[in-house]
Design goal:
The chain is of the alpha+beta class. It is built from 16 helices and 12 strands. Keywords: Endoplasmic reticulum, Heme, Iron, Membrane, Metal-binding, Microsome, Monooxygenase, Oxidoreductase.
């Protein structure tokens, strides 16, 4: 195995063994899928067989197959339907989520104005705005950026994602059966997630007893009516534990991913200032300086859309995907894969495929533009994965990225104390997730 991480090892094995091969992670055989063709053939063409969810060793002691991300079988179907319905009722894809994101973007603009062009670390600001969208859905309220309890929870998320993506997190994936008996980062991950669960449980109870005054009605993911109806059913999946872990899943997935993408995005704007200026020119032409950006603007802003796509591709946020398992014995590309075998769809191999992206290791928005400057679709662009287990929040995430990105650049130019050519894009951690390096940025009012 390559000491620089699991992904590097798997990419080296691919050169020797092709797009489908088995690696033993400790005692567990795991099938690796490389390239968009193999991933699509498995997750889309054989969707039912590959629809099971595997485990991430360092977080499994908390999730244990509960919540929509890591559930399987009937539990997953019930929680997926519940989560999709409640997000849709709240406004996933409708005007209300757009208005909520626009409102949060304006709150961020006011906060950035207070910095008066001083250097800031944007990490927790970007965490706060994405977390507040989830808080609107879950608790029916948003939190101030200086709220100490809110910042503590965001720090726990950030710390947990960093530990899970660290070299220890990757080593734990191989040797969890042995390492779990010893001190290490896995114990801190467990403690962090349990602390977040306690907060969610307390907040949900407070919401149901009317302690919170909801600004947005109804707060669909904490529905006391549903709770009352279902808790008398001994076979119901709406147990206390499932609802808490489901909320944790949505929080983790909805906060960490989008905020990390924004952090990578603005680091890239510092590295390539001409890209940021070209986006601003498009904002000037389509939106102007005064009206807040809206989702309807997206169709008229192909360059901005191409840049956001390229940020997601280049950031390669979940390079190894989230593990799957096969739900039945499956024949795939001449191999027999036994039931319950884990499968890793290596999304990074699609996002860096030289057959689909001319310069896969270079940040280049032209990857998503045709000869006429229009946005073009690319089959290998699968940052949200594919098939039945693809990201539930893709719609909300894409809306957030567009509205937050354009609103910030409409109001501010960005600057760094480091010369563009000296800005290092090397990830701070690269394991389960890729985490950009920390950096300082100035937001200068236009």
């Amino acid at each position: 195995m390559d000491r620089r991480g699991l992904l590097r090892s798997f990419l080296r094995f691919r050169e020797k063994y092709g797009d489908v091969f088995t690696v033993y992670l400790g005692p567990r055989p795991v099938v690796m899928l490389c390239g968009v063709e193999a991933i699509r053939e498995a997750l889309v063409d054989n969707a039912e067989a590959f629809s099971g969810r595997g485990k991430i060793a360092i977080t499994d002691p908390v999730f244990q197959g509960y919540g929509v991300v890591f559930a399987n079988g009937n539990r997953w179907k019930v929680l997926r339907r519940f989560s999709l319905t409640t997000m849709r009722d709240f406004g996933m894809g409708k005007r209300s989520v757009e208005e909520r994101i626009q409102e949060e973007a304006q709150c961020l603009i006011e906060e950035l104005r207070k910095s008066k062009g001083a250097l800031v670390d944007p990490t927790f600001l970007f965490h706060s705005i994405t977390a507040n969208i989830i808080c609107s859905i879950v608790f029916g309220k948003r939190f101030h950026y200086q709220d100490q309890e809110f910042l503590k929870i965001l720090n726990l998320f950030y710390h947990t994602f960093s530990l899970a993506s660290s070299m220890f997190g990757q080593l734990f994936e191989l040797l969890s059966g042995f390492l779990k008996y010893f001190p290490g980062a896995h114990r801190q991950v467990y403690k962090n997630l349990q602390e977040i669960n306690a907060y969610i449980g307390h907040s949900r109870a407070a919401r149901e007893t009317g302690v919170f005054t909801a600004r947005l009605q109804p707060p669909p993911l904490c529905p006391s009516l549903l709770w009352t109806q279902e808790k008398s059913n001994p076979h119901s999946e709406f147990s206390h534990r499932n609802l808490i872990i489901n909320t944790l899943s949505l929080f983790f997935a909805g906060t960490e991913t989008t905020s990390t993408t924004l952090r990578y995005g603005f680091l890239l704007m510092l590295k390539y200032p001409h890209v940021a200026e070209r986006i601003y020119k498009e904002i000037e032409q389509v939106i102007g300086p005064h009206r807040p950006p809206a989702l309807d603007d997206r169709a008229k802003m192909p360059y901005t859309e191409a840049v956001i796509h390229e940020i997601q591709r280049f950031a390669d946020l979940l390079p190894m995907g989230v593990p799957h398992i096969v739900t039945q014995q499956t024949s795939f590309r001449g191999y027999i894969i036994p039931k319950d075998t884990e499968v890793f769809p290596l999304l990074s191999t699609a996002l860096h495929d030289p057959h689909y992206f001319e310069k896969p290791d270079t940040f280049n928005p032209d990857h998503f533009l045709d000869a006429n400057g229009a946005l073009k679709k690319n089959e290998a662009f699968i940052p949200f994965s594919l098939g039945r287990r693809m990201c539930l929040g893709e719609g909300i995430a894409r809306n957030e990225l567009f509205l937050f990105f354009t609103t910030i650049l409409q109001n501010f130019s960005v600057a760094s104390p480091v010369a563009p050519e000296d800005i290092d894009l090397t990830p701070q951690e690269s394991g389960v997730g890729k985490i950009p390096p920390t950096y300082q940025i100035r937001f200068l009012p236009r």
